[in-house]
Amino acid sequence: MRDDIKLSAPIKFDVGGFKWEGDVSTVTHINADKMEDEMSRQPGLVSWFSLAEVEAFERVERLRNKLAAAKDARELAAAKAELNIREGKNAEGTGPNECAVKITEGSVAAMVTSCAPYQKEVSKISQLRDELADALHLANKISKIMLALEHKKDMLVQMSANRRREVLTGGYADQEPFDGSGRPLNADKDE
Fold it and tell me: What are the residue ranges spanned by the domains of the chain?
């Protein structure tokens, strides 16, 4: 195993009032010399990142809803434009269709997709897709931080148990735990 792996990665996000800028090691590092501080800090970190995670996934859901609405608006714009063209108007419906092209299914489709309202919705959809991808990336990043915090909790529990055993056995892993008087804790069980 490599000893030179860098466990630092910059984290920066701002989601729903939850702002974080720092290094992943500031969240996941355990200072064994200050176990009590680490253990008392852990619930706050989990709570804070849990709320940030909820907010991030709610943002994803809002963007999905906006994207669905934009797709509906695009379809509505297409239907309006097609109706206008079939009624002899231009695609926007603001005047007569002055196109010299014979109205065919192909020409209607081309006029619909090139009209301004349709293009506006297509642009909006593209922008929302980009925002959704960014929001999903952030939500997944926060989820991975939550997973790291879960692992940190497990390590804190294990380190605490090891320290407790060390104190009870006087630092000898193969010895029975003592009660402080020099007698093993389970000495009464044999009697």
Answer: 10-172
pLDDT digits (tens, 9 = 90+) for 92-137: 878 877 765 667 788 888 888 888 899 999 999 999 999 999 999 9
Contacts of residue 125, defined as CB under 8 A and 6 or more positions apart, other chains included, come to 67, 70, 71, 74
pTM to 2 decimals? Answer: 0.71
Q: What angle do CA 108, 111, 117 make, to 5 degrees?
A: 125
Residue 112's Cβ-count burial label (10 Å; 0-12, 13-18, 19+) is: buried
Which residue in 128, 159, 151, 142 sits closest to 61, CA to CA? Answer: 128
Q: Which residues pair with 19 in a beta bridge?
A: 14
The rounded distance, in Å, linking the Cα atoms of 87 and 82 is 9
Q: Are 27 and 44 in contact (CB under 8 A)?
A: no
